[in-house]
Amino acid sequence: MARILIVEPHPDIRTLFAHVVRRAGHEPVLAVEDGGLDVGAAVIEPGDDEGLLCARRLRALGLPLVFASIFPADRATLELEPVAYFVKPFALAELEQALELALAQAKAA
Q: Please, are residues 5 and 37 in contact by the beta-carbon 8 Å criterion?
């Protein structure tokens, strides 16, 4: 079981992502605690300023990122090399698969 940080400004979507994380057998973390260092991966809405800032900080630490946004990918977000970039709406099974890939990459690093 891994801890997965969720940085999403909309409470209903944040709750939905937390449900997906739990269903995949992991623990959702809904706030950056201790600088977000005690997580295995993160699901982030990069279209939100807080999300993009957090993504840059976590990526600098080598943590894998999965982006889920209402906006299409742009150069700034793709430079962070996310494991996956989803444009909402998308199939939740895709999020589960991307999280497993992100955790596998983190483990291999």
A: no
How many beta carbons lie within 10 A of that of residue 48, not counting itself? 18
b/e sequence 21-39, b meaning 16+ C-beta within 10 Å: beebebebbbebeeebeeb
Across-strand partners of 105? none
AA identity, residue 93: A
6's CB contacts (< 8 A; 6+ apart) are: 14, 17, 18, 21, 28, 29, 30, 42, 43, 44
Q: Which two tokens stand for residue 53?
A: 């800032």
pTM: 0.92
User: What residues does each domain of the chain span?
Assistant: 17-30+40-104
Q: What is 17-30+40-104's CATH number?
A: 3.40.50.2300
Give 38-79 pLDDT, tens digit per residue: 899 999 999 988 999 999 999 999 999 999 999 999 999 999
